[in-house]
Inverse folding.
């Protein structure tokens, strides 16, 4: 009988963590910092996700937006009962965390090459860890381009961070769909920034996260500009209940996104995302 | 099989009764087929008398009726409405509990209740394969379902070869029966003829051998063994249904935009019966409940169906909103993308989804129709070239 792989990790139940910091990002989005109450979970890689449990309401998949020792940082938008609860937790509040789950960004694929990071809205959260990792090892990578799109200036995440990334050597371009009176920057969808990013398609690896329609449009555009589909990585989203490959909710055709994703290369994702309601 | 063990033995009805008593006496919860509510259901049994001796079934798409048999056979009926996942992967299960403590922290406890040690009597070859498929899904991968694995590890499986396929059966197409495959502790083949009512028995594990040695039995005579072999061989020729003899995974990949999906969706009620009756469908949802104090929370997991519109709920709405996309997901997953995910098909040819569909949608008919549509499209393509 071949039940139970010997190296299997049950990943149940959640480990107790505590909120140690919380900051408001936008009108509906907050960033919470979690610290283990006792022992920490195994280390997370950029792009992986955790199932974060709000007491009595349930758990949802959240990408890590910062990894600092045992501390996990998550950026949460209030859209449902669980995310609203998590986004409103004050320091000291208990949470449960399971993970790490899923494939992370394959940063090693970009060794010796330039990085093009394209974020839409909350999609900047899982890319932030990647930007940090790339900036920490500048000798390993070429240029770092970061393109950020948001609905409005008020929806931009991580105030002050883009300036720090610029100072560390990244080129950061920001655009919004709906500018306000104070906005002096770019206006329009994030693909509009691609012309100015000035990347060499033959030596660039792209990392995308944002709404699916934005990622599809961006990936197609990048492929047309000559970036090989296997050098374009996307972080995809589907419903997740378990995180462990057992509940079936996160299927995208042949993929279980909690296991085979959320980071998927465009050569794999393109035919799947081309089928409506797959 | 190890040296010194008879290759096979013969039990009579008393021997089968003794087997059930022995397994129960060893502390096992014995589950077997029995007649209830005009169907052959799976339930806890304590003696051989509870087996459906003398009952067969009449099956068709959307149709299930008991019929009496003159030969008195116990296992000459096809798959019933339930499958063994009811026991190995229960419909509802508590996974863990959490309590708020006085100092404001949270204490989490994994579910520790001891799952019963089951003995399954009468596992058909198709269902034996279904268990093996769920083993890969739930017991494999980087994270295992430890409670599933614990139940599975303890289970003692008495398989019964199929000598009486139903009109909705297609195990031959799926390569799962009617002869029994690996994975059993004991395998039986029921023979009823002038030589009496008896069961050819052989062990498939050390534990099976040990159990068999404790039962009143006689070494298998050539006539019983030969008849048993012939009955199973004949059963292979009496399948009520077939799947198209093509690579089903490729067929599903290549027909995602077929017209046939519109046809079947016009009939499908998206009720999810097929997913509940299917012995391999494993999908679940979790629910969190709290008690009145608000300080005690429980995590429960229950069966879920991909036909439920909330199955793919995201903040922007469901990914698979249309009934077409949900039926297509079920079928393409079952015989197609299951291969990608778990390295095997998810269909064992038991026919339950055909029988228990309220409108009689037939998975084999749909697969044949998709195959015909693909062939026609290919033919047209060749002509136009």
């Amino acid at each position: 009988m071949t039940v139970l792989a010997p190296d299997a990790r049950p990943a149940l139940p959640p480990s107790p963590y505590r909120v140690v910091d919380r900051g408001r990002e936008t009108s509906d989005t907050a960033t919470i910092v979690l610290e283990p109450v006792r022992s920490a979970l195994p280390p997370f890689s950029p792009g992986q996700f955790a199932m974060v449990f709000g007491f009595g309401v349930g758990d949802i998949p959240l990408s890590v937006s910062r990894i600092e020792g045992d501390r996990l940082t998550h950026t949460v938008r209030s859209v449902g009962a669980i995310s609203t609860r998590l986004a409103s937790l004050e320091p000291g509040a208990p949470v449960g965390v399971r993970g790490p789950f899923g494939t992370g960004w394959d940063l090693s694929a970009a060794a010796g090459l330039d990085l093009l990071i394209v974020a839409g809205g909350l999609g900047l959260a899982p890319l932030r860890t990647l930007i940090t990792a790339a900036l920490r090892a500048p000798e390993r990578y070429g240029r770092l381009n970061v393109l950020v799109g948001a609905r409005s200036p008020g929806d931009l995440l991580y105030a002050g961070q883009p300036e720090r990334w610029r100072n560390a050597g990244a080129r950061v371009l920001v655009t919004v769909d709906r500018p306000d009176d104070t906005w002096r920057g770019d206006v329009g969808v994030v693909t509009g920034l691609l012309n100015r990013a000035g990347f060499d398609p033959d030596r660039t690896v792209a990392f995308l996260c944002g709404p699916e329609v934005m990622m599809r449009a961006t990936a197609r555009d990048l492929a047309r500009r000559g970036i090989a589909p296997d050098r374009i990585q996307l972080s995809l989203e589907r419903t997740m209940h378990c995180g462990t490959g057992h509940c079936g909710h996160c299927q995208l055709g042949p993929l279980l996104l909690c296991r085979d994703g959320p980071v998927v290369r465009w050569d794999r994702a393109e035919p799947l995302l081309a089928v409506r309601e797959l | 099989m190890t040296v010194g063990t008879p290759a096979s033995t013969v039990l009579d009805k008393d021997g089968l009764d003794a087997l059930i008593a022995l397994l129960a006496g060893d502390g096992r919860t014995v589950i077997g087929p029995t007649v209830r509510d005009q169907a052959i259901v799976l339930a806890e049994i304590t003696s051989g008398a509870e087996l459906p001796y003398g009952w067969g079934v009449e099956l068709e798409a959307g149709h299930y009726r008991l019929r009496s048999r003159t030969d008195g056979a116990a296992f000459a009926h096809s798959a019933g409405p339930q499958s063994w996942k009811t026991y190995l992967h229960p419909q509802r299960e508590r996974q863990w509990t959490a309590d708020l403590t006085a100092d404001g922290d949270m204490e989490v406890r994994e579910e520790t209740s001891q799952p019963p040690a089951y003995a399954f009597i009468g596992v058909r070859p198709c269902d034996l394969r279904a268990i093996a498929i769920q083993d890969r899904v739930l017991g494999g991968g980087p994270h295992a379902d430890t409670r599933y694995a614990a139940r599975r590890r303890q289970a003692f499986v008495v398989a019964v070869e199929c000598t009486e396929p139903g009109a909705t059966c297609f195990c031959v197409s799926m390569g799962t029966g009617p002869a029994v495959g690996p994975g059993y502790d004991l395998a039986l083949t029921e023979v009823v003829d002038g030589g009496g009512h008896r069961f050819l028995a052989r062990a498939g594990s050390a534990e099976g051998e040990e159990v068999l040695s404790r039962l009143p039995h006689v070494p298998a005579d050539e006539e019983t063994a030969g008849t048993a072999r012939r009955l199973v061989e004949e059963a292979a020729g009496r399948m009520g249904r077939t799947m198209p003899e093509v690579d089903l995974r490729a067929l599903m990949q290549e027909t995602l935009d077929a017209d046939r999906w519109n046809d079947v969706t016009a009939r499908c009620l998206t009720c999810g019966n097929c997913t509940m009756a299917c012995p391999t469908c494993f999908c679940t949802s979790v629910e969190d409940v709290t008690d009145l104090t608000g300080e005690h929370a429980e995590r429960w997991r229950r069966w879920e169906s991909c036909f439920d519109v909330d199955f793919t709920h995201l903040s922007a709405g469901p990914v698979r909103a249309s009934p077409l996309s949900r039926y297509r997901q079920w079928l393409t997953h079952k015989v197609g993308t299951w291969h990608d995910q778990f390295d095997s098909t998810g269909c064992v040819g038991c026919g339950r989804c055909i029988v228990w569909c309220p409108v009689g949608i037939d998975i084999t008919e749909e697969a044949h129709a998709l195959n015909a549509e693909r062939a026609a499209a290919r033919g047209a393509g060749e002509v136009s070239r």
